[in-house]
Automatic annotation (TrEMBL):
It is found in: Membrane. This is Epithelial membrane protein 1. It holds the Pfam family PMP22_Claudin. Keywords: Glycoprotein, Membrane, Transmembrane, Transmembrane helix. The lineage of its organism: Eukaryota, Metazoa, Chordata, Craniata, Vertebrata. The chain crosses the membrane at residues 7-29, 65-85, 97-118, 138-158. It comes from Atlantisia rogersi (Inaccessible Island rail). Belongs to the PMP-22/EMP/MP20 family. Gene3D superfamilies: 1.20.140.150.
């Protein structure tokens, strides 16, 4: 049981770190041409230098929603990690990890909404570029989506042990 809890704790910390990286770094969409490599994230567009990301007025609300949901997912993931530690040492068996599992499900839902909006509205939309593809931040966000769901289910199953 102790090894299982330690494993879940390590995966949870890894998920928090990957959420930070995927939200902060600006490599959600990448276009590599012979001349230069351009990346676009949630905040900036970078080639040689980084500048404020410009989007059309119809996509601005979508981008703000993606930014908000990714930040909320980080907040809920950190809160769930703190609650895991608190519940581990304060609650008795059978009552542990309900709150942690529920908070991680909320984190999972925030990641799902944020990355789905980005996929629907911004995938392939890099004007004047020929071959845009997803960057590592986009992939990390989807990995965090999977990890947060698995962790939340494990927390809800572990409440009985």
């Amino acid at each position: 049981m102790l090894v299982l809890l330690a494993g879940i704790f390590v995966v949870h910390i890894a998920t928090v770190i990957m959420l930070f990286v995927s939200t902060i770094a600006n490599v959600w969409m990448v276009d590599s041409s012979n001349i230069e490599s351009v990346s676009k994230g949630l905040w900036l567009m970078c080639n040689r230098t980084c500048e404020q990301l410009t989007v059309s007025s119809q996509d601005e609300a979508s981008l703000k929603a993606v930014q908000a949901f990714m930040i909320l997912s980080i907040i809920f993931s950190v809160i769930a990690l703190v609650m895991f530690i608190v519940q581990l040492f304060t609650l008795e068996k059978g009552k542990r990890f309900y709150i942690t599992g529920a908070i991680m499900l909320v984190c999972w839902m925030c990641i799902l909404i944020g990355v789905s909006i980005y996929t629907a509205r911004f995938t392939g939309k890099m004007p004047a570029f020929t071959n845009p593809h997803h960057g590592y931040c986009f992939i990390l966000a989807w990995i965090c989506f999977c990890f947060s769901f698995i962790i939340s289910i494990l927390y809800l199953v572990l409440r009985k042990k």
